Amino acid sequence: MGHTKANDVIALSSTRSMRVLPPDAGSSQTNWTMIFTAAGGDDDASARAMEQLARRYWPSVYAYVRSGGRDVHEAADLTQGYICDVMLGRRLIQEADPTRGRFRTLLLRSLQNYLRERHRYAARKKRQPAGAKLVSMSDIPPRLLGNASDVTPETAFNFEWSATLVREVLEQVRRECIADGLESHWVVFESRVVRPMLFGDAPVSYESLIGRLDLDDRSQAANMMITVKRRFARALVAETARTMSEPDEARLEILDILSDLERL
Amino acid sequence: MTRNRREQLSEALRWALEMTTDPATAAADWLARDIDPTKPTAVELLTDCSVTLEALKKAKDAYKTMRVVGEHAADRRLGGRLYLAAIAAAIVHHSERISSQSDAALLKALREFIRDESMPERLRNMVDLAYLSVQNSARKRGSAGDDT
Q1: Assign residue B41 a region: left if phi > 0, alpha if psi is -120 to 50, beta otherwise?
Q2: Is B20 near chain A, with CB under 8 Å?
Q3: For residue A185, which of A203, A224, B54, B99 is within the disulfide window of CB 3.0 to 4.6 Å?
C-alpha cells in the first residue's frame, strides 16, 4: 500500500487566510499529470505530486463523508483512510484513465466504492500511519465541522471541490498580478470582490481605495477590478479544464457543478 | 454550508461561464453590476428608466475608461458604444445632456450606433429615441445636425 508516501504528507493547510495554500501547492500540473507523476516511483517528484493531490482533494472527500452522517472523528479517519489507501495507495492511479471522463467523477465514484467496502467489512479499527497524521482535527477548518445533514454528500463534495478550486485560482491570480506589476489591481479586486465573497466583509469603498492607491477616479478603479476579475474567470476555466480529458468540456463541468449548487 | 456561501461560490462559477460566452460583454455587465447590483447586465442598466442620473453618469465614466483601457479591441469597441448609450439613456430617461459633445458630433455618433446591428435591439431602440430628441433640440435652437 502507499503508506510510506502517505507518511510524507504532513500538516494540511488551513483555508482561513488570504494566502490559502502554500506556493508549492499550486496548479502547475494538470490533475492527470499529477496522478501519473505520483505513480512514477519513489522519487521526490512523485512524493510532491502525491502531496499536491492530497492537499487539493481532501476537503471534498471529508465533506462527502461528513455529509453522510458520520461524526467529525469518524469522518476524519475515513478521509485519511481513503487518501492513504486509495488516492496515495495508487488504486486510484491504477483506475485513472483520462479517456474515460472527468477526474471529479472518478474521485467521487472511487470514494463511494471505498465507503461501501469499509461498511461491508465493518473495518472498525482506526487507521493511524506510523508517521505524521494526514488529517488531524486541528487541520479541519471550522466551516467543515458544521451540521452533517443539511445537504446531500454529493452536493457537499461538489461544493468543497469547487471551493478548493476557487481558492487555488485566487492564489494563482494574486501571484500573477504581483508578478505582472498589477498589485494595485489585485488590491482593488481583493477589497471589492474577494474578501466580501470569501469572508463576508463589506466591500471597501472606491473613495477609500482611490486615496490609498493614488488612483484617478472611480472608473479607473472599477476597470482595474474588472481586469483582475476577468483574469480570475479565465484562470478558473483553464484550471477546470485541467481536470478534463477534453479541455472543451470545462464549460460543461462548471455548468454541472453550478446546477447542483443551485438546485438547493 | 450556508446558503450565502453557496450563492457566493455559484457567482464565481457564473463569472467563468460568462467569460466563456462573450468576454467583452461579461466585462461590461460586471461594470454595470458594480454600479447597480440590481441590474445584472449593461443593457438592463442603460434601458431601465428607473436608473438614476447619478448611476448613468457613473456608467458613462466607467465605459469611457473601458473604451481606453479595455484589454482587447472588442472590449474597447464595446466600451465606446456603451459610453454613448449611457449618454443616450440620460437624454431619454432624464432629459439631461451629460456630454459636452456638439449636437452634430452627438447625432453622428448616435446614428452610427443605431446602424450597428451587433448592438442589442433594446439599446438601439433607446438610442433611436435619444437621436430624435437631440435632433429636435438642435432644430429648435437652430443648430445644424449632421443630417440637416
Answers
A1: beta
A2: yes
A3: A224
Are residues A226 and B19, on separate chains, in Cβ contact within 8 Å? no
Where residue A70 falls (left for φ over 0; alpha for ψ -120 to 50; beta otherwise) is beta
Interchain CB distance below 8 Å, A236 and B15: yes
> Quick check: B26 contacting A, CB < 8 Å?
yes
Low-confidence ranges of chain B (pLDDT < 70): 1-3, 143-148
ipTM score assigned to the predicted complex: 0.87
Nearest to A107 by CA among A264, A253, A262: A253
pLDDT at res. A145: 53
> pLDDT value at position B143?
67
Question: Domain residues of chain B, as ranges?
Answer: 23-141
Q: What residues have CB less than 8 Å from B38, skipping those under 6 apart?
A: none
Least CB–CB distance from A254: residue in B11, B13, B35: B13
In degrees and rounded to multiples of 5, residue A242 shows phi and psi of: -65, -20
Q: How far apart are CA A31 and CA A42, in angstroms?
A: 19
Distance (Å) from the C-alpha of residue A29 to the closest C-alpha of chain B?
A: 20
List C-alpha distances in Å: A147 to A152, A168, B5, B115: 12, 25, 14, 57
Contact B16, A253 (CB under 8 A): no
Q: Are A215 and A225 a contacting pair, CB within 8 Å?
A: no
- The number of domains in chain A is 1
Range of the domain at A244: 3-262
Tell whether B56 is within 8 A of chain A (Cβ). Answer: no
